[in-house]
Structures are given as C-alpha cells and as structure tokens.
Amino acid sequence: xxxxxxxxxxxxxTPAEAVGAGCRPRPFFxxxxxxxxxxxxRDVQKRDGALSSGRMFQKQLLTxxxxxxxxxxxxxxxxxxxxxxxxxxxxxxxxxxxxxxMQELAGRDRAFARLLVATVLRRLGQIDVLINECLKSPLAPxxxxxxxxxxxxxxxLLFLRTPPHAAVATSVDLADVRGFAxxxxxxxxxxxxxxxxxRERAENQDAARLNTPDxxxxxxxxxYGKETAKAIALAHLKxxxxxLTLRDNAEEWCxxxxxxxxxxxxxxxxxxxxxxxLPGYAEGAWWVQDAAASLPARLFGDLNGREVIDLCAAPGGxxxxxxxxxxxxxxIDRSPRRLERLVANxxxxxxxxxxxxxxxxxxxxxxxxxxxxLDAPCTTTGAIRRHxxxxxxxxxxxxxxxxxxxxxxxxxxxxxxxxxxxxxYCTCSLEPEEGGERIAALLxxxxxxxxxxxxxxxxxxxxxxVTPEGDLRTLPCHLSEYDGLDGFYGARxxxxxxx
Length: 499
Ligand SMILES: C[S@@+](CC[C@H](N)C(=O)[O-])C[C@H]1O[C@@H](n2cnc3c(N)ncnc32)[C@H](O)[C@@H]1O
Known about the structure:
By secondary structure, the chain is α/β, with parallel strands linked by helices. It is built from 21 helices and 14 strands. Helix 5 crosses helix 8, helix 5 packs across helix 10 and helix 14 crosses helix 15. The N terminus is likely disordered. Bound molecules: S-adenosylmethionine (SAM). The site of S-adenosylmethionine has 17 residues, from helix 17.
C-alpha cells in the first residue's frame, strides 16, 4: 500500500482513483474459477446473473400502481448478514434466525446466502489481502459496505462456482442498490482485476495462516505444534459434512441414506439439503450430531436404570445418547427456548427424559445421582468448520471468562454426584484452558474426584485421540481421509468419598 496516502486523502479521491493503477477496468475474460460442489449454485447464479443485466428489474418491480422495492436478493441478504457478524458481532446462526429477509428467501436462495457469508468468513484473511493489494489506499470507514460487497464478490470469483460475469455484475449492482453508486467503478475494477489474477494469487497465499487470527494460531501451535496447527487451520476451509448418530441398524440406514459409515459408528453425508426430508427422520431413526460430539457420552458405558443428569443439555444430541444407553435422564438447560428444542428433538426420537429449565450453578437434585454429563459452554473453537464466524467473534478474554464458568460448573456437577458416580466433562474447544487445564486445576485444588482414564481402543476411540493423561482429544484434522471431525475434549472422573 502507498504509505503516503492517508485516509483523509482517500476521502478526497473518487472511488475509482482509490484503486491501484493496475486495477483499472480491463477487458473482461470470462474464465470460470471455483472449487465448490453445491449443485444448486449453478441455477441460482445463472438466474442472478441474468437478472443483473436488467438492472431496473433488480431494484424495482413494476406493479399496477407504479414501482415498488423488490424483495432483497440472496446477495443483499448475505451483505446484511456479513455486516451483522463483522460489525455488530452477532453469531451467524443468530443473525440468520433474526433476519426476516433471510426467512423470506426461497430455500435455494437461503442456502446460497448462507454459503456466501460462510465462504467470506472462512477465507476472510486471504480475501482482504487480495482486495488490499488492489487498492492504493484503504476504503473510508463509511464505505464499509463497499468492502463487504468486494469480499462477497471475491468469494464468488475465487472460491465458489460463480461465473465471473455474474460475480462482477451482481456486485456492481449491489453497490448501486445500496447507495454506493459512486463506488461502482471501484467494485468493477477490483473484481475484474481479480478475475484475471486472483486465482493464481490465491493459490500462492498461505491460506492456513492468513485465515487464522494470531491468538488462535499461537494457541494451537503451543498446544499441538506448528504442523498440527496448520492442519487444523486447513481443515477449517471446508464446510463440515452432515453426521448422523443412529439408534441402531447402522448398515441398513447407511444404505438407505446413501451415507458413509465412519469408524466411530456415525453416518456421514455431504452437507446441504433438507434434513427433515431424509429417510428415517420422521420415525426418529437418527439425529444430527458431529462424529466427535458423539464420543463423550459413550464414556459412561451402560447406563441401564441409572440416574443421570445432563447439565447444559440443549439441543440434546448427548441427552439422546444417554437416554438410549438406558439412563433415567434429567436434562437441564438454563435457556427455556433451547430446552424447548431439546424436548421437540427427544419427542421425535421417542426417548423419554425429564427436562428442567434451571441454572446448573444454583440448582441441586434432591438425591445424589449415578452419573453427570457436563458439556460446558465454551468458545467453540473446535467447531469452526460449522461456525466460521467463531474466529472473528471470539477473543482471548472469552477463553478466560468461560474458563471461570467451566470451573464453577465442574464443582456444581461434582456436588450432584454420589461417591463412586461418574462425571464426564467435555467442551468443543481446542483451547487447553477449556480442556485439560480445567481438569488439572480441579484435581490440583483437592476436588473429591479422580480421573478414570480412557483406555486406548475403548469404545472404538483410536489411541491417537487419547492424551497421555487418558482424556479424549479430537482435532478437526483427525479422520482427514473422511473429511475430518470437530475438535472435542472429554475427561472421565470418578467421585471419591473425600478429597
Ligand atoms: C455446548 S451447549 C450444549 C450442547 C448439548 N450438550 C448437546 O450435545 O446438544 C451448552 C449449553 O449450556 C447451556 N448453559 C450455559 N450455562 C448454563 C448454566 N449455568 N446452567 C444450565 N445450562 C447452561 C446453554 O444454554 C447451552 O444450551
């Protein structure tokens, strides 16, 4: 970047002048880039590309009474969702749930809007470097939406199957529709330049490092070594597949669902499509749960007739496992809304449980129980494949804050357990502070508990997923031949009579 050009100076320039010399509009060469595999993309993008050539149609609909605003397109919705995540710091799933415009899109457009935002979030580091290299000076803060339009455009050009003309034309239209007509030339110039040079440049980037915030890179390098940190970061570039936990008859359902049976016993399909339309959904033959998330609840073994408390239970994937293993399960969550979802999920599966909307820190059972599962709230850095917003929302402070919550919940969980009873603690975090360090601190501080290490091969858990202390530690780069799995930590403790 030209160091002599300040932000003030940029304000005085026209947007086209703010583009680097090499970024002047060039003749358009329609090469087709991209790596996605979503079949719906072709149709959505063909249609949107055609629409963008009839600009007026995109902006306004002719009605009997004159012109009125058209409903937002998938790209407009994606632009708003991106702003919600990056500027309002809303989790992507919450932003989607709160977006009326998203709900009003047709199914395919909804999927496309989500894919656009998720792709930008997964590749944000790479995309911003590519954009910045095309700009002589940074865009003014009031043009933040233009930056987001460019990000969406680059994601389409380089990482999705968008025909270049559609990526460029719809981005230019988006600038126009959103009141940035004066930036249309800049959007056009940057994207056209990247149509030509972008792919090669992107291939030469260090994608793992650029798309990972410094603090996470440092944390994973310290905990797992540099090579593994890189493998973890590379695993985050792909969308997670759809994993299902079965009630029984794995082979039969594997065939019916045209899925792959993983060594862990879960079924795997590629992501996308309507889950409720899949065979076996209505009759409750399976539920959605990442293969790694299905491991902690198995550490209890047979729970037949046992009193079990599932603390922090919603939406209930692990609750279902505990009930299926024969436990008499009390499912606790402090969020009544999330607990409602749990109840609906368990009803579909026909598994009886007792739901309770209370705060686990304050509530205690009338009698001590045989088993407690504590799937504690955490930073979810183990599930970045599913939640690509996490690296852009979470900070080291969140790790510190949640570590305190986890410590308090661990102590509460032990108080609910009878001597000899089993506690399984787990988090979907890659941060040691939310995993092994919590258990080490608990035992060091004299809690009436001892670790019951996982034996290598126990419940089919491969030895490389078991730490030297005997805890579960999966990483997104594990099971790479099947497209990876979430990063989960799990420890199994036994309650002692006294410390
Ligand atoms: C990681 S999620 C649980 C996922 C769930 N175990 C599953 O497998 O589907 C954490 C849950 O903990 C709940 N939670 C957080 N703090 C809590 C507390 N103090 N008491 C009860 N529930 C809590 C949240 O509402 C959230 O639903």
